[in-house]
C-alpha cells in the first residue's frame, strides 16, 4: 500500500512538472502547480521512507489527501479565468482504483464520497456553467464503477487464493491437514509453547499391516480405512488439538497444553476407537502410536518427531496395536478428573471442528 501510494504521488509530481515545462494554458496558475508538484514529491518521499512504519489506518487519510490534490489541480488549470478545461479530473480514477483494490468496502465508499464532494466543490468554485452537473455526474459515475469492479475482482481473487492455500495444506482423501500443513502448525504450536511455558505433545501413528490390507482387500478398502480413521480422530481429539495425515497410512496429532501422560491417554483412546471401526476387510483395523512431549523430549520439531517415531517403532516391535511413550510409567494412569483429557463427543457437540494433519516417519 505504501509503495503504490508513493508511486502515485511521484507520478503525479512528474506529470505536473512536465505539464508546466511543455506548452500549457496561459491562464493556468503556474505557482499553484509548482507548489502542488513539490508537495506531491515530498509526500512520495515520505511514503516510501515510512511505509513500513505507517499503520494501515493512515492510508485512507493519505488517499483522501490525494483526492484534495487532484481537486486543486483541476482548480489551478485556468478554467476559472476563462481558459480551456484540462480534464485533470480523470486523475480521480487513480484514487478510485487504489481504494477499490486496497480498502474495505466501507473505506472505498468513503473515498468515493470524498471524491464526489471535492469535485463538486471544485466545480462550484470554477463555475463551468450548465455543463457542471453533467461533468460531475460522468466523472463520479466513471470512477465509482471502476472502483467497484476492481474491488469485486480483488475480493474474489483473495477468496480464490485462500481456497488454494487451504487446498495445498489439506489431504483430499481424509480432509485432514497434509504434511505441509502439519509442519507449519507444529512450528507455530511449539513456538507458542516456548513463549508460554505450557507443555506440548506429539503423537505419531500408523495403521498396522496397511500394505497387507491393500494387497488383500484392494485399494478401495484401504481408502475407506484411511477415511474412517480420520473421521474417528476428529471425534476423539480435543477442539484445541490438530490431527493430520502426513503420508500413506501415517497420521500425527499435535496436542497443545498436554503433558506426556495426557497425550498417552489420548493416544490410547484413539487406539481403542480405531479398533471399533468396521471396514470392508477380513481382518480388524488396528493402529500403533508413539508419543513425545515438550520439553522433556526436546525443544525442536525434529527432536520431538524423532522421539515419537522411535516410540512408534517400539510399539510395532512389541506386537502392534499399542501406544508407547518414552519415559512414561503406564502403570499409573492419569487422573480421570484431569480437565485436559478428551471428553466424549456428546459433551463437545457444537465445538469448532478440529483440523487434521499427518505423521511423518524419520
pLDDT < 50 stretches: 331-362
Find the CATH topology of the largest domain.
Alpha-Beta Plaits
Q: Quote the average pLDDT.
A: 86
Helix content: 55-70%
Largest sheet: 5 strands, mixed
Number-wise, the strands total 5
Number of helices: 11
| Rounded Rg | 32 Å
Strand order of the largest sheet: 2-3-1-4-5
Number of domains: 2
**H/E element sequence:** HHHHHHHEHHEEHEHE
Verbal overview:
The protein is of the alpha+beta class and 362 residues long. The protein folds into 2 domains: 2-168, no CATH class; 179-348, 2-Layer Sandwich (Alpha-Beta Plaits). 57% of the residues lie in helices and 9% in strands. The chain has 11 helices and 5 strands, in the order H-H-H-H-H-H-H-E-H-H-E-E-H-E-H-E. It has helices at 2-21, 30-50, 59-76, 92-102, 105-126, 132-168, 179-196, 210-217, 219-236, 260-275, 301-317, and strands at 200-207, 242-247, 250-256, 287-294, 323-325. It has a 5-stranded mixed sheet with strand order 2-3-1-4-5, sandwiched between helices. Helix 4 runs antiparallel to helix 5 and helix 8 crosses helix 9. The longest helix is centred in the middle third of the chain and has 37 residues, at 132-168. The protein starts with a helix and ends in a 37-residue tail after the last strand. Residues 331-362 have low confidence and may be disordered.
What is the gist of this entry?
With 362 residues, this protein is an alpha+beta fold. The protein has helices at residues 2-21, 30-50, 59-76, 92-102, 105-126, 132-168, 179-196, 210-217, 219-236, 260-275, 301-317, and strands at residues 200-207, 242-247, 250-256, 287-294, 323-325.
Amino acid at each position: 500500500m505504501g509503495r503504490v501510494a508513493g508511486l502515485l504521488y511521484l507520478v503525479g509530481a512528474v506529470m505536473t512538472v512536465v505539464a508546466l515545462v511543455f506548452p500549457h494554458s496561459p491562464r493556468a496558475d503556474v505557482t499553484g502547480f509548482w507548489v502542488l508538484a513539490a508537495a506531491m514529491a515530498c509526500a512520495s518521499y515520505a511514503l516510501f521512507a515510512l511505509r513500513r512504519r505507517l499503520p494501515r489506518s493512515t492510508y485512507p487519510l493519505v488517499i483522501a489527501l490525494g483526492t484534495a490534490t487532484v481537486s486543486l489541480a483541476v482548480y489551478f488549470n485556468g478554467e476559472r479565468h476563462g481558459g480551456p478545461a484540462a480534464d485533470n479530473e480523470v486523475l480521480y480514477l487513480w484514487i478510485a482504483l487504489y481504494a477499490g483494490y486496497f480498502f474495505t468496502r466501507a473505506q472505498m465508499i468513503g473515498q468515493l464520497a470524498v471524491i464526489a464532494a471535492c469535485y463538486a466543490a471544485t466545480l462550484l468554485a470554477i463555475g463551468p456553467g450548465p455543463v457542471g452537473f453533467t461533468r460531475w455526474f460522468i466523472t463520479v459515475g466513471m470512477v465509482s464503477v471502476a472502483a467497484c469492479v476492481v474491488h469485486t475482482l480483488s475480493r474474489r481473487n483473495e477468496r480464490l487464493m485462500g481456497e488454494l492455500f487451504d487446498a495445498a495444506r489439506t489431504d483430499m482423501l481424509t480432509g485432514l491437514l497434509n504434511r505441509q500443513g502439519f509442519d507449519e502448525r507444529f512450528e507455530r504450536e511449539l513456538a507458542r509453547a516456548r513463549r508460554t511455558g505450557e507443555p506440548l505433545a506429539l503423537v505419531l501413528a500408523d495403521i498396522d499391516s496397511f500394505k497387507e490390507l491393500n494387497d488383500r482387500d484392494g485399494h478401495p478398502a484401504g481408502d475407506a480405512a484411511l477415511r474412517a480413521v480420520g473421521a474417528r480422530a476428529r471425534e476423539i481429539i480435543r477442539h484445541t488439538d490438530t490431527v493430520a495425515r502426513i503420508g500413506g497410512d501415517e497420521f500425527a496429532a499435535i496436542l497443545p497444553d498436554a503433558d506426556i501422560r495426557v497425550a498417552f491417554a489420548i493416544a490410547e483412546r484413539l487406539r481403542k476407537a480405531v479398533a471399533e471401526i468396521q471396514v470392508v476387510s477380513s481382518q480388524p483395523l488396528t493402529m500403533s502410536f508413539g508419543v513425545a512431549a515438550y520439553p522433556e523430549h526436546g525443544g525442536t520439531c525434529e527432536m520431538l518427531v524423532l522421539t515419537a517415531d522411535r516410540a512408534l517403532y517400539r510399539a510395532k516391535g512389541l506386537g502392534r496395536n499399542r501406544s508407547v511413550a518414552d519415559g512414561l510409567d503406564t502403570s499409573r494412569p492419569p487422573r480421570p478428573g484431569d480437565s485436559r483429557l478428551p471428553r466424549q463427543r456428546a459433551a463437545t457437540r457444537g465445538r469448532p471442528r478440529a483440523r487434521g494433519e499427518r505423521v511423518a516417519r524419520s
